[in-house]
């Protein structure tokens, strides 16, 4: 089961796909590395077109004209709420912690 969440990209207005209960950290190359409580881990890389690619799942995410992010399979849609957190249709949430890491619930 692939349950993806979008998290706020530190220092850039982007998004990140992630499993539930995951933490994201930006590396020196600008990629986002994630580690989940389930033991799954991966890297999200932004391509020249602004799409994010997940090296673990092979999914690609693109930003639509409303600022929401859509998965390549069309099943996941993420957008920002009024507090700046990312939420999906099912109510899952990702937010930045005090250390600048992103945590998804």
UniProtKB/TrEMBL annotation:
<keyword id="KW-0732">Signal</keyword>
<protein>
    <recommendedName>
        <fullName>DUF4124 domain-containing protein</fullName>
    </recommendedName>
</protein>
<feature type="signal peptide">
    <location>
        <begin position="1"/>
        <end position="18"/>
    </location>
</feature>
């Amino acid at each position: 089961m692939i349950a993806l969440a979008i998290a706020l990209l530190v220092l850039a207005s982007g998004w990140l796909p992630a499993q539930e209960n995951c933490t994201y950290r930006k590396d020196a190359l600008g990629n986002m590395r994630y580690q989940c409580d389930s033991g799954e881990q991966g890297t999200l890389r932004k391509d020249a077109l602004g799409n994010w690619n997940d090296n673990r799942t092979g999914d690609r995410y693109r930003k639509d004209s409303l600022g929401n992010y859509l998965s390549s399979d069309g099943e996941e849609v993420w957008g920002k709420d009024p507090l700046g957190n990312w939420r999906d249709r099912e109510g899952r949430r990702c937010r930045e912690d005090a250390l600048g890491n992103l945590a998804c619930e």
